[in-house]
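Notebook, p. 212. Picked up where the previous page left off. The plan for this session was modest: take the two constructs that came back from the sequencing core last week, fold each one, and keep the raw output in the notebook itself so nobody has to go hunting through shared drives later. Recording the first one now, exactly as returned: residue sequence, then the structure token string.
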Amino acid sequence: MNLVDRVREFLNEKCKMLETGFYSDIISNLEEATNLGESIESPIEQLFFIEWKFRQFCNSELELLYLEPQYSDPSTKNFILDFYINIIEEVLTWKEMFDLNKYDIITSTPYPKVGIEIDSHIWHEKSKEQAMKDKKRERILIANGWQLLRFAGSEVYKDPARCVDETLGFVLKIREKYFKELREKFKDKKVKT
């Protein structure tokens, strides 16, 4: 075996390890969501979730940007959102949990609430009544501080990567603005960051 063949073989071994690791992570994430009552039934939502988890698997900077499926929001009559992007989870590390000054600032600062809705034509536009109900629901969510991104099911089906790219672009801007606000509050209260 020459060196080039050995390099290819080695690269294939590493790719298989990554593939196996990612596959088992996704399966355990889906099982965990089901055990927590957050089961992702829709195959289109599963595509979005898998693409999101793939991005996290490849980029550790996104690891703490937590995507919660089937999120029930108590401030809006417990409406279920397809996904909630939990930004506060990223901020409240163990270090901050035990630093009361930081904890008080973080928990008293309104954090962004970002929801993702993936609308299949079959369900969301089934009738005029269903369309009116969806519009009313969206108004209530927005009135309660939610920022929503809506995707047609066909968009996610055709190109889940583009939908997740768009979502990440949106969320990372919101996250940076929120972190900037926290840094300013920390500075005002003379808390080390």
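Okay, moving on. Second construct, recorded in the same format:
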Amino acid sequence: MIAALLGLLAWLLPAGLLSDLGQAEAAYRAGQYQEAMRGFEAALAEPGAAHGPLLYDLGNCAYRLGDYAAAALYYRRALLRLPDRDEPRFNLRLAQEQLGVQAPIPGPRGVFDWLDRAPALWLVAWLQAAGLLGLLLLRRTALRGLALLLLLFGLLGGLQQVLRRTATPPRYGVVQAQLAPLRQQPGQEAAVQGSLQAGEVVEVGEGTEQWLFVQNARGSGWVEHTAVGLVD
């Protein structure tokens, strides 16, 4: 009864009286998943939106609607922003089971992942400063050697940070079409050399406006752009 009243309220109130997010949550609780999806999409477009939770909510809507490939895509997008949350990871596993797909699922951040974040820059800067000051102020050979090591570690750490931040990470996508033919060349007339099923994860390479080159453990080739949703 409460769910029905919430759904009726979301339907009857004038647009703008409830926020997009409020309407979406009310619609979801009322079992109106298509309406909820539209609301979450609208909330996602608002400035300052919490993308991670909203993408997770969109994944739940897609799952309830039986669109498991779209759900898997939304859950993977959510995990990019919520790597330590177990709910998107658990639901992603459920969606892949529904699709009959066994694709790697991102795990939580490891204990050393902090090195990729801001504190690592402070550590690198401290090592460089300590090493440089040591070389300038210390007179004992052993201590100057230690200072030199600190400076070298700091310089190597800085170089590693630069390389990590300038390297282009690979793009990944989730197949959305029920069956996506893999073609040798971009174009409908090109020979088919295999196929991908909905929910499979692929690495995305070069592309045109209509075609993408993709690859995974089962093969590589060109698929139509609309057949793959990018994990971004």
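Notes on construct two before I forget. Residues 141-166 form the longest helix (26 residues).
Flagging for discussion at group meeting.
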